[in-house]
Design brief:
Blueprint (H helix, E strand, L loop, with lengths): L15 H22 L28 H14 L7 H10 L3
Length: 99
């Protein structure tokens, strides 16, 4: 027997689910930044041995994917601090993944 929520519980806002996902993504980014700040994410010691995939190409057709793209970039920057010592190296990297 399936149980369905009462109609008053069903959200009538079609953007609510996407907004909820965005909030989860923000919380995840904050948590990952805290890990990195505590030295658990590779820090500035040496380039991480962790194999991270490159960020997915971002073309702007789905603006809600921007946060995920930036998270992927940030993770790569933190995993390879020697390769991304200054802002211009980070900007050039991000630009290379824009379509």
């Amino acid at each position: 027997c399936a149980v369905f929520p009462p109609q008053s519980v069903v959200n009538s806002n079609p953007n609510a689910e996407a907004d909820g996902e965005e909030q989860v993504g923000r919380r995840m980014l904050v948590a990952l930044e805290k890990l990195a700040d505590n030295g658990l994410g590779g820090g500035d010691r040496a380039d991480s041995k962790a194999k991270l995939r490159e960020p997915n190409q971002f073309d702007g057709s789905h603006p809600k994917k921007l946060q995920g793209f930036l998270l992927q970039c940030t993770l790569n920057f933190r995993a390879k601090p020697q390769a991304f010592r200054d802002g211009s190296a980070k900007v050039n990297c991000v630009l290379s993944f824009l379509k």
